[in-house]
């Protein structure tokens, strides 16, 4: 049985995540307010950011940078700036 959430990213009801994927209060907020679809969109952006900026997940600064971008993307409707990446024309 899938759960439905009002996704803050999509601004509509959508299928919610199966379990909390991120720790702490932020993880709880994502679980309650972000859909599977929005999380998948973020995962693509996150991968591009890690690769583009050569982020090291062992570095606290790099993890903070990624988290700030995640919050901006999921909750503030800000697209992730990736240098040298031009989105395909739709």
Automatic annotation (TrEMBL):
Question: A single GO molecular function, which one?
Answer: iron ion binding
The record's InterPro entries line, in alphabetical order, gives: Fe_traffick_prot_YggX (IPR007457), Fe_traffick_prot_YggX_sf (IPR036766)
Q: Name one GO cellular component term.
A: cytosol
- Which processes are annotated in GO (biological process)? cellular response to oxidative stress
Keywords for the protein's UniProt record, in alphabetical order: Iron
Q: Does the keyword Iron belong to this entry?
A: yes
Q: Which residues form a coiled coil?
A: none
Asked whether the keyword Membrane is assigned, the reply is no
For this protein, the record's Pfam families field holds: Iron_traffic (PF04362)
Q: Identify the HAMAP family for this entry.
A: Fe_traffic_YggX (MF_00686)
Concerning its family, UniProt says: Belongs to the Fe(2+)-trafficking protein family.
State the NCBIfam families in the record: PRK05408.1
Question: Could you tell me what this protein does?
Answer: Could be a mediator in iron transactions between iron acquisition and iron-requiring processes, such as synthesis and/or repair of Fe-S clusters in biosynthetic enzymes. Necessary to maintain high levels of aconitase under oxidative stress.
Q: What is this protein called?
A: Probable Fe(2+)-trafficking protein
Q: What is the lineage of its organism?
A: Bacteria, Pseudomonadati, Pseudomonadota, Gammaproteobacteria, Alteromonadales
